[in-house]
Amino acid sequence: MAGIINNNSVGKKYYIIDFDSTFTQVEALDELARISLQEHPDREQIYRKIEDLTNLAMEGKLSFRESLAARVQLLEANKDHLKLLVKHLKKLVSTSFSRNKNFFKHHADDVLIVSGGFKEFITPVVLPFHIKKENIYANTFLFNDEGKIVGYDEANPLSNEGGKVKLLKELQLQGEIHGIGDGYSDFQLKEFGMIKKFYAFTENIERKSVTEKADHITPSLDEFLYVNNLPSAISYPKNRILCQVAGEVPDVAVKYLRKDGFAVKHAGVDDKLLSDAGILLLGEGEKITADQLRKATKLKVIGYLGNSKKHIPAELCTEMGIVIFDNIRKPESVAKRIARFINNGDSFKSSNFPNIQLPTVKNAHRFIHIHHNVPGVMAKVNQVLADNKINIVSQFLMTNTAIGYVITDISSEYDKKVLKELKKIKHSISFRVLY
């Protein structure tokens, strides 16, 4: 069942992106039902029926045509409801899509929104992301004279089962094509040979029937951009940063870190996991030895729910460039400070690091350099940047008796050799690109 697209064509790449539960966090027709039926006496029963019809189609258990027709009949919606829906959806763009607007800006010719949803609500939501109107492919509603939705254009291929496959056959795009989505209709593009790779998007919902068929599971757009070597708002996907949890840690802290996008495993201080962990969150009374710590070569931050003084070798942590946040009564506060450090470089209220509270700088790259507190290191950092003609937007330095903590924001693009030079500076402990 091979398609007619030449995925071996050199040079040009296209990115086919789904809308519902991919570009946005929700299924738009489900949300439209909640708006249009809010005064209906049987609204809860109808909501559940519409959600069931959505899921059956997304899992490939019901034809898309049957699901769509049944859902539209149940909506009882009009143009005023659609205006409210658009306003609602603009607030519910997927988090990783929101922070990667620059990707869409620089790839405006390459990104196509292909959805079984409807242009009436998709177009106004995606246009602010620099996506071209002619690159939006979706269904269209039919209205009566009073503006009520009475049906949809049944001639549109996207209203039929396998509609995305039919559409791509008609488009005859020449190039390497990648598809991103959460549903069975997105996988069908790969099944019928229309795209090179299918990426199951799981930031909002994970459907086992879809993920088990995917070439790659992408928990965020950051992950997709990372594996395809495309520019991203953050340098390393948070879903690849393992947070190891040990001891009695309240769910509120674990849920916060998981919601922020980190991979969380509650498994005790496991040496094997520790070697891969970027974050360690410990309940009061838990310990980590110096030998264990030395093996944790990827570890960046430790959160401790209590006083860590007798339980964590703080001096060794400092020597290794590992930040400690502890002695905080509210567990969620520890989680927030961990996330703030990973996301922004903020070391405020750390018990072993120089305290810096940082602003978030837009349209810039942020470097974090940790070094032994000896004279001349800062000068060497700036000399590397000067030699590579890199303009500094802002720079922050704090020291304690052991280390210096430098955060540098630059506005220009840079060659990767700059990173190697910064890492090689004498007395460096660790270096990372934040975004």
UniProtKB/TrEMBL annotation:
One of its GO terms (cellular component) is cytoplasm. The keyword Oxidoreductase does not apply. Keywords: Amino-acid biosynthesis, Coiled coil, Hydrolase, Magnesium, Metal-binding, Serine biosynthesis. One of its GO terms (biological process) is L-serine biosynthetic process. Residues 65-92 form a coiled coil. Residues 366-435 form the ACT domain. Its cofactor is Mg(2+). Pathway: Amino-acid biosynthesis; L-serine biosynthesis; L-serine from 3-phospho-D-glycerate: step 3/3. Signal peptide: none annotated. It catalyses: O-phospho-D-serine + H2O = D-serine + phosphate; O-phospho-L-serine + H2O = L-serine + phosphate. InterPro entries: ACT-like_dom_sf (IPR045865), ACT_dom (IPR002912), AHAS_small-like_ACT (IPR054480), HAD-like_SerB (IPR050582), HAD-like_sf (IPR036412), HAD_sf (IPR023214). This is phosphoserine phosphatase.
